[in-house]
Structure to design on (138 residues):
């Protein structure tokens, strides 16, 4: 169920990127662009978790890019996305399957996916704002 939802998010982002790329005249590496967007959303989720952890525990985390607290999740995200989308063409099978869904189901799915994307984005920026406002002033 989670795997199918993950591929559905990929499908929705992929079709959106194809649509905008066709309008702008640059339809190339669409699957790679989609993986970058999904990776960014996943990194924002992890960033939000770290921000809320700092807020709840009222601690200042000394994190840099070489910290295991950063490297391990980033490596996991990279490997997950690599083996799910780049290494195999399984996503193409799912995209064909999702293309065959009725229009009302795809429209409903679009609202859900874009709602989640908006919530993840807003949550990340709110968590950073709160972190800056409360914890970094310690």
């Amino acid at each position: 169920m989670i795997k199918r939802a993950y591929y559905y998010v990929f499908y929705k982002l992929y079709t959106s990127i194809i649509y905008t790329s066709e309008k702008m005249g640059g339809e190339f590496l669409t699957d790679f662009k989609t993986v970058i967007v999904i990776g960014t959303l996943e990194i924002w989720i992890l960033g939000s978790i770290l921000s809320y952890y700092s807020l709840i525990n009222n601690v200042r985390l000394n994190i840099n890019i070489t910290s295991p607290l950063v490297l391990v999740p980033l490596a996991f995200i990279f490997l997950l996305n690599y083996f799910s989308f780049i290494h195999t063409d399984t996503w193409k099978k799912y995209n064909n399957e999702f293309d065959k869904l009725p229009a009302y189901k795809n429209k409903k799915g679009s609202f859900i996916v874009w709602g989640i994307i908006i919530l993840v984005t807003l949550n990340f920026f709110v968590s950073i704002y709160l972190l800056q406002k409360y914890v970094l002033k310690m």
Observations:
- The mean pLDDT is 85.
- Residues 66 and 72 are 10 Å apart (CA to CA).
- The radius of gyration is 17 Å.
